[in-house]
């Protein structure tokens, strides 16, 4: 997604982001610590566009979240596969024990 598209949709997205307290605090922290404070002071009602540095910080944060979610999905899939294999081994062992008795 290009910066222009994200900037254009940011006003709408900010309303959605406000429902998530941790993201809102993170976003407010980034805005409060933005080196270009004048950029935000020029807006009368909230923030409807980001300076480039804040935009990039949020994009990086988003990418890290997606990366973490992807890793968690991979780990869960791997654990499920391992559990299936363990279950199959247990069934095979039980079958072999029954046959040997």
From TrEMBL:
* Highest rank taxon of the organism: Eukaryota
What protein am I looking at?
A: 26020_t:CDS:1
- UniProt organism field: Dentiscutata erythropus
Lineage per the UniProt record: Eukaryota, Fungi, Fungi incertae sedis, Mucoromycota, Glomeromycotina
